[in-house]
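[audit] Reproducing an earlier prediction to check determinism. Same input, same settings, fresh worker. If the tokens differ from the archived copy the diff job will pick it up downstream; this log only records the rerun itself.
[audit] input (125 residues):
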Amino acid sequence: MNTNPQWFLIETEQDYENAVARYEQIKYASAGNEKKEKLLLVHLIQNYENSKWDLPEVDPVEMIKIRMDDFGYKAIDLAHIYGDKGTISKVLNYKQPLSLNMIRKFSTLLRLPAGELLKEYQLAE
């Protein structure tokens, strides 16, 4: 008996929330049907995000700052999620690049597509 949900195009916010929740459950799958489902979910989630979110053409740090403002977050709020206020300060001041771990956490917290945070940007000298 197959207990995995069948996935179709994500068309509603509820579909999106369900897909993200399922992805979080199986994100470390490395083989079999769960790996295939994970890859499908990545595609479906990214497609939905790209179609619904009209994001400005700014670098990842500026995008983070915009979303922080949208949600009323301060640097300390990001530090609570990431765990290091000094690193957050360096990132927000273009002195250190975003790490993959930060991208994952900030993508979820700020509801940004991770791909947008992966874009290259110039660090301060």
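[audit] rerun output stored. Observation attached for the diff report: The chain has seven helices and no strands.
[audit] end
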